[in-house]
Amino acid sequence: MKANETKVEDFLSSNKTQFVIPVYQRNYDWSTSQCKQLLDDILEVGTSKKTNAHFIGSVVYVHDDVYTSSRIKELTVIDGQQRLTTLTLIYLTLYRLAIEMNDEGLEAEISETYLTNKFAPEEEKLKLRPTENNDKAIKYLLRSDSTEEFNDFSKVIDNFNYFKSRITQENIEYVLKGLSKLMFVEISLDREKDDPQRIFESLNSTGLELSQADLIRNYILMGLNRKSQNKIYNNYWEIIEKLAKDESLNTSKVSDFIRDYLTLVNNKIPNKSKVYLEFKAKFPTSDLEQLENNLLPIKSLVKFYNKLLNPKNEPDRAIRTQLEYINRLEINVAFPFLMKVYEDYSENIIDKETFIKVLDFIQSFAWRRFILGLPTNALNKIFMTLYEKIDKENYLISLQKWLLKRPGSQRFPKNNELIESLKLKDVYNVKSKNRTYLLERLENFENKEPVKIEGNTDITIEHIFPQNPDPKWKVDLGTDEYNFIKETYLNTIGNLTLSGNNGKLGNKVFTFKRDLENAGYKDSRLWLNKYLSIAEKWDKAEIEKRFDLLAERFLKIWEYPEIELDDRDENNEVNIFEAEDPKHKKLEYAIFFDQKIEVTQVAKLYVEVFKQLFDLQPETFFTTDLAEKVTLTKTPKEGNPRQPVQINDTYFIEGNIDNIGKFEKIKHALTIFDSEDELTIKYAEK
């Protein structure tokens, strides 16, 4: 490796040289604000008589002794393409301005020194050879043809237009002076002696932060020769990048997709910041054939991931509707599972009816849990391994049985607790997606003419008893009932409906809202207003009657499966936080961090849990009150702890505690470790 401080203009003016941006580099992504900062710096040093140099980072490249047929030296840029591309755009702006100024000398100097290799053939003429899309944009700008339009979206074009708006005849002199003072560190690598991938990872670039997907792409492609790079990129990675995208936001989801894929194959959810490291560990550097074998299943699943992100791409209307619902609920944690189910459907392992029932069942599971307010982090571990629980011969039933067996905070809520929670739940002050999902599905159940509510500005949510009621409401209801409704039922489903005339109905009394001609509940064609059209008044009793109707409909939409669980299905596992008092009880086993522990005594479970927690993160014991709670010590003294129990080669904790106390200390530790869902126990039968 050789590193030298170099003037930018000297580097770019290198004779018969082409700076190649390889396919594994991310696309050009500099924002206008970054372009502004660079140009501001250039103008500042260009106008300063005191500043002789301005450092803008580094450029790292590999030579590989590659020359074109016309003896153009190719330098493969490992890091710095964002800066090089932006500098090229500034020189292109100066070139176009020189043409407008009829300054043929400056035009030729910029073109032949910084932008092109004068005597090279057309395909090798550009000094900077970016990736395909950017290459088209730069060649378009260089042609300077006013009759030609560039219609594709391009950051290159956007940023060129920004520079064009700021670089003028008035400041061109200062821009040129500023460019002449720019410096960076030029780092040349020898592939035989240096490890470009490792150097790339360790660089503290001043450009855009690399995503996990960027790092993975570089890892896959950087070690290959040019021909193999193009093959892997064109046949695999480009397809993954194209499909793993939220098309409505035009944002890449490749990092998330790879994370979901690793979750699926490893049965372990990678930390978002360690997806690249997990990928490297799972797929160590290998030959081209092995690399293709590794990428093939990833490429195979990405088309299903695309439809989960973008339901509009699913051609079947019934399936698309279910995907839209799942999309609104943002059950992204289920994507590893759903990708495989989607694949089974595409391969005819399950039929369309079963696929739709699975999608509907997952909604019921997630939505019921939402109504109860059960912790969402419990879903991570459920969906991580859920696909493995499916019996392909009994697809839906096996899935339903397994989820119905989940204990405690992982449970599938039953009807009684669901209705009890729904009755009082504030469903108005939740995410608008969730709110409209609830009301739209209630409205459209078995409706042959479904009403679209999501994104429909003509229909809004209406409080029947208003948020700011007309004073007549209190007169009609009486103070006690008025206050009760306002405090208890205001934002609950029993008091909410849909209306296209919210503004007209306003805060008026119920009879006015019911009878208003062509706008009231009586004239509404919505199912949600059917009961309101015949109600004589709107009080606590009427809200509760309407709730009963809505609850009945709710249970038909988000069903609890009517299947019987036999003794083998009822395993009575329970989260320790929801377990009965352990006094005078024995265990059959426990499951801690997904590992089954064969223990029959609470005392042994207590020791095992603290052994694992201390091994996992010993510093947590000392940075919280945990060490004090369990009397953690290196050197047990007489009577302290009273009954020392060893948890590793050095440390001991107090063991002289009854079973209830042991459970309390375990739960306290799990709370500190944010691992409340990690310990499940099963009591032995008496």
Give the topology, please.
Blueprint: E1 2-7, H1 8-12, E2 17-20, H2 32-47, E3 54-62, E4 73-79, H3 81-100, H4 104-115, E5 128-129, H5 132-143, H6 155-166, H7 172-181, E6 182-189, H8 196-202, H9 212-221, H10 226-243, E7 245-246, E8 251-252, H11 254-266, H12 275-282, H13 288-309, H14 317-329, H15 335-346, H16 352-372, H17 377-385, H18 395-404, H19 415-424, H20 432-444, E9 460-463, H21 472-477, H22 479-489, E10 496-499, H23 502-505, H24 510-515, H25 540-557, E11 574-575, E12 587-592, E13 595-597, H26 602-616, H27 619-623, H28 626-629, E14 644-646, E15 652-654, H29 659-672, E16 679-683
Parallel strand pairs: 2-4, 2-5, 3-6
Antiparallel strand pairs: 1-6, 3-4, 7-8, 9-10, 11-16, 12-13, 12-16, 14-15
Helix pairs in contact: 2-6, 2-7, 3-4, 3-6, 9-12, 10-13, 11-12, 13-15, 14-16, 15-16, 16-18, 16-19, 19-25, 26-29
Tell me what the structure shows:
This protein has 686 residues and is of the alpha+beta class. The protein has four domains: 207 residues, no CATH class; 200 residues, no CATH class; 140 residues, no CATH class; 111 residues, no CATH class. The strands form five sheets. Strands 1-6-3-4-2-5 form a six-stranded mixed sheet. It has a four-stranded antiparallel sheet with strand order 11-16-12-13, covered by helices on one side. The chain has a two-stranded antiparallel ribbon with strand order 7-8. A hairpin with a 2-residue loop joins strand 12 and strand 13. Helix 2 crosses helix 7 and helix 19 packs across helix 25. The protein is globular and about 90 Å long. The N and C termini lie far apart (72 Å).
